[in-house]
UniProtKB/TrEMBL annotation:
Protein family per UniProt: Belongs to the CheD family.
Identification of the protein by name: Probable chemoreceptor glutamine deamidase CheD
InterPro entries: CheD-like_sf, Chemorcpt_Glu_NH3ase_CheD, Cytotoxic_necrot_fac-like_cat
Organism per entry: Nitrincola iocasae
SUPFAM superfamilies the record matches: CNF1/YfiH-like putative cysteine hydrolases (SSF64438)
Lineage summary: Bacteria, Pseudomonadati, Pseudomonadota, Gammaproteobacteria, Oceanospirillales
Amino acid sequence: MLEPEHFIEIFLQPGDLYFGGQHTRIRTLLGSCVSLVIWHPHLRVGGMCHFMLPGRVRSPQTGLDGRYADEAMELLLLDIGKMGARPSEYQLKIFGGGNMFPGIMRTDVSHIGFKNVQTARELIARYGFTCVSEHVEGCGHRYLIFDIWSGFVSLRHRVLKANWEPVQLNTALLTPLDYMGLEPAAELPKRDPVTLSTRRKR
């Protein structure tokens, strides 16, 4: 689908979440954080979250906070519910969970990025989403661009390298960039994105 002549551009900070219609582009930058990208191919709606941690101990009086995986998922489900579609009708992609300290973390220690990815997979299975692609773990930053009008996600992965001999990394979960609609991000026209100034809480 061609890029619309006019669209809004949203940049997600850690803890942010956005769900919207087809005239929207969402961008974010990930390290150990994880983003879930969801898209409905028929309704042409979708969203993205950017969570930092797997979860927390939360009292019933505490509102939902998008910094935590389980609560970010609940916020996405609230938006999905408004559209009248089931989670299984959405395509979902997982990104992030990188090790930001290569060479320091031993392979037998689960870093926060790994825990974020594992929690994301558990939530996806629990709520019946269909995961069509992922680019997770490894080392370094990931820059994402999600165009809701097409469902296409562009990815630029900057790998961090240690100054000493690196430890063995778990790369079994990495997928090629050309798998299921992923490719290196092309140069895009410069625009002033809208930054969500507050985390989504309910």
